[in-house]
């Protein structure tokens, strides 16, 4: 299975600032995903990031607020821009591992963001 | 639009008990169903994945089933242990490899 790391693991930020979260995978993957988990809730997909193309955003999420980079097949970043307390969440990246017979998704440890 | 529901929202059982977690989904056109475990403040650990052509998958004390016609999946945990305490999430995979998650079942296994 793919091994995924995220930086930072947690951060406390002031409203109006921006934070960039990094996601690193130990193998080359085509599809990477960014999810948000608000306090006490389940995960919601923010966007899909494929290398060499623009990220595809889900309904309710826009590029100006959550710009994403995907410079190569092992790395991606998510920026949370102009933060407000409502952005306080855990942000998780995941990858789809197609090396086996199934298309299983694996998740990073998450970045816990608190906006004050 | 796919919607995933998990019942119960929380479950507390004594150690050693066998238990079943339920997951239902609205769109039968899923291509797989994945069960995850999440410990407090942590990321997700993949437990089992069932492809749409399969009926069940087993890993150790865990068994997951999938019935596409009824829109249901179950996760069976045998001989539960305190270390099984966590939140269990099911997620349906649909077009574009998107996963739609349920709200989760918070499991507590008491020694």
Note the main attributes of this structure.
heterodimer; A: 116 residues; mainly beta; seven-stranded mixed β-sheet; four-stranded antiparallel β-sheet; 11 strands; 53% strand; globular; B: 111 residues; six-stranded mixed β-sheet; 0% helix; 58% strand
Give an overview in words.
The complex is a heterodimer of chains A (116) and B (111). Chain A has 116 residues and is mainly beta. Chain A is built from no helices and eleven strands. Chain A has strands at 4-7, 10-13, 19-25, 31-37, 43-50, 56-57, 68-72, 75-80, 89-97, 104-107, 111-115. Chain A is globular and about 45 Å long. The model of chain A has no long low-confidence stretch (mean pLDDT 92). Chain B has 111 residues and is mainly beta. The model of chain B has no long low-confidence stretch (mean pLDDT 93). The termini of chain B are far apart. Chain B is 0% helix and 58% strand. Chain B has no helices and eleven strands. Chain A binds chain B through residues 1, 31, 33, 41-45, 48, 56, 58, 90, 92, 94, 96, 102-110, 112, and chain B through 31-32, 34, 36, 41-46, 49, 51, 89, 91, 93, 96-104.
Summarize the topology.
The complex is a heterodimer of chains A (116) and B (111).
Chain A: E1 4-7, E2 10-13, E3 19-25, E4 31-37, E5 43-50, E6 56-57, E7 68-72, E8 75-80, E9 89-97, E10 104-107, E11 111-115
Parallel strand pairs in A: 2-11
Antiparallel strand pairs in A: 1-3, 3-8, 4-5, 4-9, 5-6, 7-8, 9-10, 9-11
Chain B: E1 4-7, E2 10-14, E3 19-25, E4 32-38, E5 44-51, E6 56-59, E7 62-67, E8 72-77, E9 86-93, E10 99-101, E11 105-110
Parallel strand pairs in B: 2-11
Antiparallel strand pairs in B: 1-3, 3-8, 4-5, 4-9, 6-7, 7-8, 9-10, 9-11
Q: Per the principal axes of the C-alpha atoms, what is the gross shape of chain A? A: globular
Summarize the helix and strand pattern of chain B as letters: EEEEEEEEEEE
Mean pLDDT of chain A: 92
Query: What is the SS-derived class of chain A?
Result: mainly beta
Number of strands of chain B: 11
- Quote the beta fraction of chain B: over 45%
Alpha-carbon Rg of chain B, integer = 13 Å
Question: Helical element count of chain A?
Answer: 0
Multimeric status of the protein = heterodimer
Distance between the termini of chain A: 36 Å
The profile of the biggest β sheet of chain A is: 7 strands, mixed
Structural class of chain B: mainly beta
Q: Count all strands of chain A and give the number.
A: 11
Order of helices and strands of chain A: EEEEEEEEEEE
The level of helicity of chain A is under 10%
